[in-house]
Amino acid sequence: MAADNRKAAQAGVPISLGGPRARNLLACLLLNADRVVGVEQLVDAVWGDDPPSGARIQVQNRVSTLRAQLRRAGLDATLDRQAPGYLLRPGPVPYDLALFDDELRRAHALMASGDLSRAADVLRTALGLWHGPPLAGVDTAPLRTAAHTLEERRLEAWETCLGWELELGRADAVARDLTGLSRDHPYRERFAVLLMRALAAAGRRAAALEVYRRTRVRLVADLGIEPGPDLAATLDELLAEAPGRDLAELVPAQLPADVRFVDRRRHLRALDNLVPEGASCVVIAGPAGVGKSALAVHWGHSAASRFPDGQLHVGLRGWAPSGRSLSPGEALRGFLEALRVPPEKVPTGLQAQASLYRSLLAGRRMLIVLDDARDAEQVRPLLPGTSGSLVLVTSREPLTGLAVTGRADHLTLDLMDAADSHELLAVRVGRPRLEAEPAATAEIVRRCSGLPLALAVAAARAAISPAPAALTDLAAQLARAGRPLDAFTGTADRASDLRTVLSVSYRRLSPAAARVFRLLHVRIGDRIGTAAVAALADIDRDTAAGLLAELATAGFVTTDGDHHWGHDLLRAYATELTTDADEPAAALRRLLDYYLRRAYAADQALFPDRDPIGLVPGERFDSVAAAMAWADAERAVLVEAVDRAHAAGEHERSWQLAWAVTTYLNRSGHWHDWARVQRRGLAAANRLRDVRGQACCHRDLANAATRLRRYDTARRHLRTSLVLFERLGDRSAQVSCHKNVAWMEEREGRYAEALRHSELALEISRQLPGTRRLASSLNAVGWYRALLGDHAAASEFCREGLRLFRQTGDRYGEAHTLESLGYAEQHRENHAAAIELYERGSALCDEIGERYLKGQLLTRLGETHLSAADPDAARTAWRAALDIFDEIDPRAAADLRERQSSPR
Asked: What are the protein's UniProt keywords (predicted)?
């Protein structure tokens, strides 16, 4: 390359490569400089687990582009095709990794020749070539693995360099460097060893002993391991130099370092209040990753002045990934050591150790934090025998055994809300960065599901990324289809690996509960009832209830009455664990069948004489109120079930579900949902070429459009529906279509056309068996005659219809007919009769859950009261009507307000 270009490259002038895929490609080639890299390896490095189709061709194109970029930059590097891939020869290009390797070899050569001082200087210069995390911004697993390897090489070089400098007597400088390195890498024991030796050499022996204490606490609490032999030997060396005084004067202060904490005010206040009330033990319970340990440690630091005799802390490893928890005896021996009991004075039996421990605590005021407890049996030997000290226990289990004996208060830690989640990110990442990328921040908050561990991992990834749009990149990674937990995995710290944390609880589930958890990702909607879980897993309801209780105890579901749910990250974890043997497709069909059966049963209760579509009656609801209550609770699930069935290719279930929820969605005023499910149902029926399904969906979609005042849409669908029902020869359904057309014409003020269609419906009804259809047609003719001013004839038709409705027990039809009769009497100025009819109709609406009709009845009731010179009663009725219309039909509410304000 030309001299000027070489100087520019050596000065660090950047070369524009394009997007992250181009950077991934170059990173992989440089990591394997002067070695052939296979095409498949490049594909993995560039795209990870989700390569596009034609990835091999894209690699060829990207290599060609990179080759041209290197050439334009004037670099002497070559990039050649060589089976089975490509070979990059950087030549004299001084990229940082190559320079570091050269300097590292030179430093070791100087050390071998005995020139320790120059060796240390060269190695420190080599370490200066590192400018932040290696391969920052890479987003594929192979490159993340390579980055971890490079980081390990850097840390090993620091250990070597600082060890050499310590030998050269540079203790103060080494201690300064190691203070920061130890803070950033708290589990790296070699850093702790060097820092202890540097502090001791600088005359700061007590500080060196504190480094050991702090490191041991963190290793035991977070990783469940004791210090290794080098760290233990270093402690022995320091104690042997001048035993006794430094260590003996230390008040136990074993709490791990405090974290930057988002204020869970309610929980912190609860802990504050428990201390004056004389609490001796508080169990902080909650699911994995919810922040129990952070809360206990943060509160412990804030309340340290309340415990002048110090703090004890132990990680009991009840849910450690290794599966090996700390025994009470091991924990007791650690506490006795912290309380300055010489090893030879520690008794051998657990009971004797516990007795000595309690004796030492008597009369003291200490805070004892028992982190990550497995069960009550692990905790009981560690409880003080007298008041004064406070024990904080954290556990994924509620440890109800401690409450039964009256020894513990309980505090349950829940998921964070959106505001606290945002605050946690602000504390960890910085508020300006969040404000610069608000949409990405909101997406990260949503994807992390309020789980503090997930938020902390996401924040750490964003904080160390040099990319200007790090939050946007992270949000895109979280939103990417496939494996959402990948964004919270791959850290060196197993305690921060979300999969590892969740797997510990999962492995402790019974096989049956584990299967239910895996299948729960199939659930429809955010929550699921016990009966639905039974259908999903093909088990009986009592068994499902027991397994859900086990899952709730393990933190895998949250329970509220009969409904259960888990956050999105748990759902993603369950999805990953599901195998073909679990038969998720069959489980979805069982779940859809359950909702279809229940929705059909609710429809039967609400509209028992509705035209059937071939579904077989199964279970029943005891009352209309029970059916409405169930449908109210499951509405969002039922609407989504129609979509899920269609997406899964279960088209018959899709349109039948849409049909089954029609009556409920209409009467409860959820008309947008009604239109949505009918559109999806119609698409499913079209896929099946099911003429009856198409006809039903066209008709119900038209009715929903009429409710929403989309009359052109309604007219088009009704016309199609009527043609299809005529083709099927279904005269009963034709009656319904004519009445639906009449209703639509009425809404547009075309009363004569509405009467014509209602008379056609009545003509067909008289030729068919059954009375409900005839009663409905009689009422429709009476209603439209009333609207056209023929009130006497209207009354005759409506009274005949009312008699038939009462004969069949159809309260929905009866309520509609009472409105028609009331309207006729109102306009004949029989005010008392009209008021009675409207009030009876309104009461019936309460029984059947018909909200819109009740609003209409109350509106007419108000008008009648006003005509009868009772304005107060009129206002009362209208206020009640507005309460309904404001919620389900704002335009109707606006019309009513306008009528009230207009002069009469």
From this structure: DNA-binding, Transcription, Transcription regulation
Tell me the per-residue pLDDT of 13-23, one tens digit each, with 9 for 90 and over. 556 666 778 87
Strand (E) positions, 208-343? 281-285, 311-315
In a domain, 194, yes or no: no
Rounded to whole angstroms, the Cα distance separating 554 from 641 reads: 28
- So what's the pLDDT on residue 879? 93
| Cβ atoms 625, 686 nearer than 8 A | no
Q: Is the peptide bond before 84 cis (omega within 30 degrees of 0)?
A: yes
Listed in sequence order, the residues at least 6 apart from 831 whose beta carbon sits closer than 8 Å to its beta carbon are 864, 867, 868
Helix (H, G, I), strand (E, B) or coil at 384: coil
Q: If we measure between CA atoms, which residue out of 390, 145, 124 comes closest to residue 255?
A: 390
Q: What is the CA radius of gyration of the chain?
A: 37
What single DSSP character describes residue 222?
I
Residue 177 near residue 127 (C-beta atoms within 8 A): no
- 449 neighbors 485 (Cβ within 8 angstroms): no
Q: Which of 464, 498, 532 is the last residue of a domain?
A: 498
Pairing of strands 390-395, 558-560: unpaired
The Cα 396–Cα 316 span in angstroms is: 12
Q: How confident is the model at residue 108 (pLDDT cuts 50, 70, 90)?
A: confident
In total, how many domains does the chain have?
5
435 lies in the same domain as 396:
no
Task: Give SS3 for 579.
Answer: coil
The amino acid at residue 662 is: T
Using CA atoms, how far residue 795 sits from 124, 723, 790, 792, 825, in Å, is 102, 33, 9, 5, 8
Number of CB atoms found within 10 A of residue 233's CB: 12
CA torsion sign for 16, 17, 20, 26 is negative
Q: Are 88 and 33 in contact (CB under 8 A)?
A: yes
Give domain status of residue 449, yes or no.
yes
Give the three-class secondary structure for 780: helix
- What does the pLDDT average to over 200-224? 77
Domain around 428: 418-498
The residues, any chain, with a CB within 8 Å of residue 68's CB and separated by 6 or more, are none
What is the percent of the chain with per-residue pLDDT over 70, rounded to a whole number?
Answer: 88
- What does the alpha-carbon distance between residue 851 and residue 835 come to, in Å, rounded to a whole number? 19
Residues paired with 392 in a beta bridge: 282, 369
Mean pLDDT, all residues of the chain:
83
User: For residue 693, how far is the Cα from the chain centroid?
Assistant: 36
Task: State residue 341 phi and psi, 5-degree precision.
Answer: -85, 120
Report the Cα 389 to chain-centroid distance in Å. Answer: 38
Residue 70 CA to residue 47 CA, distance in Å, equals: 22
Distance CA 554, CA 7 (A): 62
Residue carrying the six token digits 């991934």: 24
pLDDT over 60 (residue 242): no
Asked whether residue 694 is assigned to any structural domain, the reply reads no
Q: Does some domain include residue 153?
A: no
Task: Give the CATH number of the domain where residue 543 resides.
Answer: 1.10.10.10
Backbone angles phi and psi of 755, in degrees to 5: -65, -40
Distance CA 834, CA 818 (A): 9
- pLDDT digit string, tens, across residues 491-513: 444 455 667 667 767 877 899 99
DSSP state of 291: S
CA–CA dist 493, 485 (Å, integer): 15
- Three-class secondary structure assignment of 751-766: HHHHHHHHHHHHHHHC
pTM of the model: 0.56
Residue 580 sits at φ, ψ, to 5 deg, of -60, -30
- Predicted confidence at residue 243, as pLDDT, reads 45
- The pLDDT-based confidence of 100 (bands split at 50, 70, 90) is confident
* Nearest one of 785, 847, 824 to 838, comparing CA atoms: 824
Q: Which residues are within 8 A (CB) of 300 and not within 5 positions of it... i.e. 6 or more apart?
A: 255, 311, 313, 367, 369, 392
Q: If you average pLDDT over residues 39-62, what whole number do you get?
A: 78
Token match 């490095």: residue?
45
